[in-house]
Write a structure and sequence with these properties.
146 residues, three-stranded antiparallel β-sheet, 9 strands, 8% helix
């Protein structure tokens, strides 16, 4: 079974933009959260895969922490079956250690295993070492729900 493009878009908008999903359930449809909260962007040294968690191959340099992004149109943009960051995403500066990051993820928890929702490859690997502050422009972190 496969989800339609319209359903994929509707579901992603509900989850990432906190938008209402009309015509599902009762007359008001599926409603966005009263308090939307955030999802957390993480960096990974390899693809965490569909069976992975937020800690699978996660970056480990000193100064690294996941970045909270609001579940709103200020935080994410949904286009078709793709989700992208709608604001600059800047991670903590590396003060020691190193990681070569190749992937990013979107998950539910600020730390720990958490629920990995989506992940994607960076456009190129990024070597993070002392003095490097990973930062990603609007739209640079895009992943697709297939």
């Amino acid at each position: 079974m496969s989800a339609s493009n319209a359903f994929e878009t509707l579901l992603l908008q509900l989850l990432f933009e906190n938008a209402n999903a009309a015509n599902i359930g009762d007359a008001t449809g599926l409603r966005g959260s009263t308090t939307a909260g955030s999802f957390y962007i993480g960096l990974h040294t390899a693809d965490p895969g569909e069976a992975g968690s937020q800690t699978t191959s996660e970056a480990t340099y000193t100064g690294y922490a996941r970045v909270a992004v609001a579940r709103s149109t200020a935080g994410f943009t949904v286009t078709g079956n793709s989700v992208a960051n709608d604001a600059l995403v800047t991670f903590g500066a590396c003060s020691a250690g190193s990681s070569t990051v190749t992937h990013f993820s979107i998950g539910t928890d600020a730390s720990g295993a958490g629920n990995l929702l989506l992940s994607g490859a960076l456009t190129g690997s990024l070597a993070v070492s002392a003095g490097i502050t990973p930062s990603f422009a609007i739209g640079a972190l895009t992943c697709t729900a297939d």
